[in-house]
């Protein structure tokens, strides 16, 4: 099972840079990179809420569950 973070898709749709997004959400650009690259083990709900507010989207637009292919 894998949870894929689709921040890059939403940023591209809005033509928003990673640095602008990070600044508006209140996290570092390095933490945005960790999320985008799938290295994050957890996301605080307050951070997810801020990301959704900045991007004007639902959590499902940012997170996708992909089942294992056994």
From TrEMBL:
HTH cro/C1-type domain residues: 13-62
PROSITE patterns referenced in this protein's UniProt entry, alphabetically: HTH_CROC1
Any one Pfam family match given in the protein's UniProt record, by short name: HTH_26
SUPFAM superfamilies: lambda repressor-like DNA-binding domains
Protein name: Helix-turn-helix transcriptional regulator
Lineage: Bacteria, Bacillati, Actinomycetota, Actinomycetes, Micrococcales
């Amino acid at each position: 099972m894998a949870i894929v973070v689709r921040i890059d898709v939403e940023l591209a749709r809005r033509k928003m840079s990673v640095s602008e997004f990070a600044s508006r959400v209140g996290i570092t650009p390095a933490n945005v990179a960790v999320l985008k690259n799938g290295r994050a083990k957890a996301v605080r709900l307050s951070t997810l809420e801020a990301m959704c507010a900045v991007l004007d989207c639902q959590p499902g637009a940012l997170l996708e569950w992909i089942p294992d292919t056994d």
